[in-house]
C-alpha cells in the first residue's frame, strides 16, 4: 500500500527537510539541544543523558529521534566554572527514507557575579557537523509505473534529488543562574543555526536552514520539612513559522534515608493548543530517569 503512494511520500520528504528542528517534549532532559550555555550546568561534576522518541504512528512508520550527550563541569580557583560537552543526535522518518545525523561539541563559561557564586552568568557556544541523507529505495515514482504495477527496479529519473548533504553549523546561548544551595532559578536564551547554512537536499536547491530562537526558564524550590522539591519550567521556541510553547510543574517527593538518596517526581507539562505531557521520574543516587 505504501509503495503505491508515490507522490505523497516524495512531497513529505522534501517538506520535512525544511521543517523545524527535532526537539523533545521533555526539553529539560536534553540540555545541549536547548541551549549551549547549559553545558556543564549540573549539580554533579559530570552528566550523561540519553533520549529516544517515536511519534506520529498514525501516518505510517513513525519519526524516530535519539540523542546521547555527555558534559562536564570544570571548576576553577574562583566560583566561576567552565563546561565542556559532546552531543550525538540521530533523526529519521518514513522508515529510514530520510535520515539526519548531528555531532556537536559544546563549551561554556559560567562567570560568578558575587564572591559566593550564588549568581552566575553563562555564555555557551556549540559547533556541529550535520549529515542528511535520502534513500529512494522504498519510494515509488510515477515513471516507475508499468503494466503490472509499480516496478522499483526501473529508474525513477528524479535527478534533481541529491542523495546526501553535509554542512557545518554553529549555535550560541546565554544563561543566568541563581543557586543558594537550597533554591535554584535560571533563565536563558539561545540561537541555533547562527550562520543559516545551506542545507538543501535538492541538487539545484538554494535553501538555507532558518535560525531557531529559544527562551526558557525554570526553578527548583525546597518545600516542606523533608526537603521535598517543587519544579517549574517553561520554554518558547520559534523557527520561521513554527512555534512551540510549553509550561509545566512537577513535585519531587524525598524518599531518602541515611543510606541512600531517593526522589520520586510527578508532574505535567502543557504544550499550548496541542497536548498535556505527563511526567514521572526517579532519582536514585547518581541516576535520574
Short structural summary:
This protein is mostly beta strands and 289 residues long.
Helices and strands in order, then pairings?
Blueprint lengths: L6 H10 L14 H4 L11 E10 L7 E13 L5 E13 L4 E15 L6 E16 L10 E2 L2 E2 L13 E16 L4 E9 L19 E12 L4 E12 L2 E13 L7 E10 L3 E10 L2 E2 L1
Brief descriptors of the model:
single chain, 289 residues, mainly beta, two-stranded antiparallel sheet, 2 helices, 54% strand, elongated, disordered N terminus
Characterization of this structure:
It is a single chain. With 289 residues, the protein is mainly beta. The protein has two helices and 15 strands. The chain has helices at residues 7-16, 31-34, and strands spanning 46-55, 63-75, 81-93, 98-112, 119-134, 145-146, 149-150, 164-179, 184-192, 212-223, 228-239, 242-254, 262-271, 275-284, 287-288. Strands 1-2-3-4-5-8-9-10-11-12-13-14-15 form a 13-stranded antiparallel sheet. The protein has a two-stranded antiparallel sheet with strand order 6-7. The chain starts with 6 loop residues before the first helix and ends with a strand. The model is unreliable at 1-18 (pLDDT under 50).
Amino acid at each position: 500500500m505504501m509503495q503505491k503512494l508515490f507522490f505523497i511520500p516524495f512531497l513529505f520528504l522534501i517538506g520535512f527537510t525544511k521543517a523545524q528542528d527535532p526537539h523533545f517534549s521533555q526539553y529539560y532532559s536534553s540540555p545541549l539541544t536547548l541551549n549551549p550555555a547549559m553545558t556543564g550546568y549540573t549539580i554533579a561534576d559530570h552528566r550523561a543523558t540519553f533520549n529516544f522518541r517515536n511519534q506520529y504512528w498514525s501516518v505510517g512508520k513513525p519519526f524516530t529521534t535519539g540523542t546521547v550527550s555527555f558534559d562536564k563541569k570544570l571548576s576553577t580557583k574562583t566560583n566561576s566554572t567552565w563546561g565542556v560537552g559532546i552531543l550525538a543526535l540521530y533523526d529519521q522518518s518514513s522508515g529510514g527514507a530520510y535520515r539526519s545525523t548531528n555531532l556537536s561539541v559544546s563549551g561554556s563559561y559560567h562567570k560568578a557575579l558575587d564572591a559566593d557564586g550564588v549568581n552566575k552568568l553563562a555564555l555557551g557556544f556549540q559547533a556541529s557537523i550535520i549529515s542528511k541523507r535520502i534513500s529512494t529505495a522504498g519510494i515509488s515514482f510515477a515513471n516507475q509505473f508499468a503494466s503490472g504495477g509499480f516496478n522499483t527496479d526501473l529508474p525513477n529519473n528524479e535527478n534533481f534529488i541529491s542523495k546526501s548533504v553535509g554542512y557545518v553549523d554553529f549555535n550560541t546561548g546565554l544563561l543566568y543562574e541563581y543557586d543558594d544551595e537550597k533554591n535554584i532559578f535560571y533563565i536563558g536564551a539561545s540561537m541555533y543555526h547562527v550562520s543559516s547554512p545551506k542545507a538543501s537536499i535538492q541538487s539545484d536547491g538554494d535553501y538555507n536552514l532558518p535560525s531557531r530562537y529559544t527562551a526558557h526558564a525554570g526553578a527548583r524550590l525546597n518545600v516542606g520539612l523533608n526537603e521535598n522539591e517543587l519544579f517549574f519550567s517553561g520554554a518558547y521556541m520559534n523557527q520561521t513559522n513554527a512555534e512551540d510553547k510549553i509550561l509545566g510543574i512537577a513535585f519531587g517527593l524525598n524518599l531518602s534515608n541515611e543510606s541512600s538518596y531517593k526522589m520520586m517526581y510527578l508532574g505535567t507539562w502543557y504544550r499550548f493548543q496541542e497536548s498535556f505531557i505527563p511526567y514521572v521520574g526517579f532519582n536514585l543516587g547518581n541516576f535520574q530517569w
